Every structure is written in structure tokens, then in C-alpha cells.
Amino acid sequence: MAPPRLDLSLYLVTDSSLLPLGRSLADHVRASIKGGVTIVQLREKTLGTAAFIKLGKEIHAITKELGVPLLINDRVDVAKVVGCEGVHIGWDDIDYESARSLLGPDAIIGLSVSNHDQLVLALKANPTYLGLGPVYATTTKPDAGALLGDLGVCSLLEKVPEHIPTVAIGGINLVNLQSMFLKIGLQDPRTRSRKPKLLDGIAIVSAIITSMEPEKTCREFKGLISSSRAESTWDRSVAKLIPLLLPSLQRVRTCPPLIHHITNHVSSSLSANVTLAVGASPIMSDNPAEFQDLAALNNGIVALVLNMGTFSDESPFMLALDAHGLMNPVVFDPVGCGATTARRKFAEAIMYTGCCNVIKGNEGEILSIAGEKVVMRGVDGAGQDGGKHRERELAEICSKLAKNEGRPDFDPCKKPKLTRR
Ligand SMILES: Cc1ncc(COP(=O)(O)OP(=O)(O)O)c(N)n1
Ligand SMILES: Cc1ncsc1CCOP(=O)(O)O
User: 73 CA to middle of ligand 1, Å?
Assistant: First the structure.
């Protein structure tokens, strides 16, 4: 019988030093697997060999009972003695070929990749999977090196062949996960062959290990993972959509985000009231002096909404993207784009920063930022040719634009081109 397919979707990497006071790693791992963790890596940087082996055997008994693989970080010798399913190694550890020959052809061996040079070497080795990171800032690995950001991960993924699964690691948590999936995308195991390549999972240390309720936290991660996959199935019946939206609405209630709006004077008070009605906190500001502060308020649980309805000068928009762009989700509403050349150029400049996660618009606006010639009456639609495109088609264009796909001259490795820092 073929071994079960490797499921990397929710990958727990341990660090006992981060456990809440009085909690044991064994209980934490058990609860996390009950909550949906699909693979565990024992990463215990301060343990000596004997203690590492003892803990490895204890944790392996649990992972085996619950049917998920256990990998050991760095130490092939420990993995061999524990008898677990494999190892995760980096570039300061034993080389891949030696690890493979010591552990055998069936062992799971993951390799870390932080840049394109490492990717080239890793692909020659042909490991079981790749760990791409650090994506975002993390205190868990002080020597983690330069952050990839969403665009850096996308740029690596472009070069990863279909048969090698990938996970993203570094600073991923329940707050930034949805935005990360919007920008990078998560593979649906039922529809494997997809271009561009998407992630197969996320690897998490602190967001699970520091949780007082690891089972609940993992269920929340699982909820976001399955809703991200469900989004691509496009079953838009209300009965299917409501359960997908509810967890997001509940999260807004339990963890209210601050929404910084730069919006037009027609809809300003409406936008503030709608934001309050869903349980978030609005702040309306087009004063660049406060953008850096706003982007970091509320423990970083912040999003930016840009509405260019009554724009005059592009600089507040660019400075706001500069402050929020790589950290916080950005919603862009290209109001009236297509009505005038100035609006089209303005919207294009914003799109080319590569910072927009969600693009919201009507048919004319979406088609015109996608580069099609549309004649718009005003801000209210697509003019004479309106209504030709079905919503699904338009939403797919939006999703591609948000991921900067289909832009031949867009280089995802480059940092967004912003006016000044
Ligand atoms: C899944 C996953 N990806 C990357 C890493 C980092 O591994 P490495 O580069 O060996 O660094 P250390 O973990 O040893 O500090 C990982 N552990 N897991
Ligand atoms: C092991 C590792 N490799 C790259 S970042 C990282 C640490 C991830 O930890 P956290 O999920 O707490 O940011």
C-alpha cells in the first residue's frame, strides 16, 4: 500500500522555552494535533543529546498514536535513535545527501530556503519539501536573516517545480494569515496542478506554542486554511458563503482591527459607520505625519483602505502604502478608474507598488486597471458595454491583480517602488 500523502497544511514547529508557564510540551502537542496540526517538528535548540532523544521518544509516542509524522530539527542522529519519520535541515547542518543516506529513501527530509541561491542548491538535492522563510518578522529565530515578505515567497515559488511541496515559515499568525493567503495562495490538494505554484502549508512556532488554548488556536488556523481553499471553489450560494464569512466576522469582534481609511469626502462618514457596524475601529486620515504611527497602532492589527474617489495628489496614498504596505492588509478601491487618463495612471501607480491585497470595484474599474479600454460614464459602471462580464470573471481578474499576476514587467523581488520613506 502506498504511504499516505504528506499533509503539510498546518505544520507545528516546537520551542518548549515559549510554552505558557506550567504547560508540558507533550500536552501541547497532543492538543495541537487534536486541533488540526498535520505534522510536527521537534525544534529544541537548548537540549543536549540525551534529553533531546528522551523528549523525542515521548513526543513520537503521541504523534504515532494520533497518526501524524514527527521530524527532528537539525539532528539526524537523534531522529535515527527516536525512530521518527524524518528531519528538517538547514544550510549549517548535515548535508542533504548524507542525511538521505543515513535515514533511507522513505524518510521525510525538509530543507530550508531563504533566497534564490539556496533554492537552486535545494532543487538539486530534490528534498521531500521546502520550508520558505522567514516570511515576516519573528523573534523565535534571531538569526533568521532577511525577511522574504509575501512577494519574496511568490518569487521563490515561481521556480519550485510542481512535485516539491512547500511551507511558509516565520512570523505567521492568526492576524496576518488571511492576508498572506490572499497574496501568495494555498494549494488545494484536490486540484494539484496549478500555475503559478501555491503553498502547501504553513509552519508555525510561537502562535501555537505560546497559546493558552492550543487546540482552539489550531482549529482557528484550520478554519482559515479551509476557507482560503474554499474561496477558490467558487460555490457562491448564500448557504455556503455564510459559514465562510462567520469566522472572519467573529474574529473582527474578538480582535477588533483598526481600519485606516483614506477615502473620498462623499463616502467618508458612511465608510466610518460601516466599519463601526461590523465591530472594527475606523480612523479617517490623509495626514502623512501620522501614517507610520497608525500603521503600528492596535498591536499591529491594522488594515488600510484606499479609495481614490476624489483624489487630487498621489503622495498621501503612496506614503500610506509605504507605512502599511508590507505589514498590513491593503484594500484598494479604484473609483472611476477608466473615466479619465489621470485616474487610470493614478490607479496604475498604486497597483504597481505591489501592496494591494484586495481590489474592490465595479466592472469598468476592474477592467480598466486590468489594462482593458473601457468607456465609463462616471463612477457608476462600465458605460455602454457594461454588464458583459460575469462576476466570477471579474473576481478572478481582481485576484490576479492582487497577486500581481499577468504583469510581464512586474518583478516581485523588487521592493515596492514608493515615493520616499
Ligand atoms: C519548516 C521549517 N522551515 C525552515 C526552518 C528553519 O530551519 P534552519 O534553517 O535549519 O534553522 P533552525 O530551525 O535550525 O534554526 C525550520 N526549522 N522548519
Ligand atoms: C524556524 C524558523 N525558520 C525561519 S523563521 C523561523 C521561526 C518561526 O517562528 P514563528 O512562527 O514563531 O515566527
Answer: 7
Q: Is 42 helix (H, G, I), strand (E, B) or coil?
A: strand
pTM of the model as a whole: 0.66
Give the three-state DSSP class for 125: helix
The residues of the chain scoring below 50 in pLDDT are 1, 233-236, 384, 406-421
CA distance linking residue 324 with residue 318, whole number of Å: 10
Q: Grid coordinates representing 56?
A: 523525542
State residue 40 phi and psi, 5-degree precision.
Answer: -125, 140
Could you tell me the distance, in angstroms and rounded to a whole number, from the CA of residue 171 to the centre of ligand 2?
Answer: 6
Instruction: Please answer whether residues 393 and 329 qualify as being in contact, where contact means their C-beta atoms are separated by less than 8 angstroms.
Output: no
Q: Which residue owns the Cα nearest ligand 1 atom 2?
A: 131
**pLDDT of 216-227, one tens digit each?**
999 999 999 988
Omega cis (within 30) before 196? yes
Q: How far is the first Cα of the chain from the last one, in angstroms, to the nearest whole number? A: 58
Q: How far apart are CA 190 and CA 236, in angstroms?
A: 19
Is the confidence metric ipTM above 0.85 for this complex?
A: yes
Ligand 1 proximal residues by C-beta, below 6 Å: 11, 13, 41, 43, 73-74, 88-90, 93, 110, 112, 131, 133, 141, 167, 169, 203
Which residue has a Cα nearest atom 1 of ligand 2? Answer: 141
Ligand 2 in reach of 152 Cβ (< 6 A): no
Cell numbers at 97, concatenated: 545527501
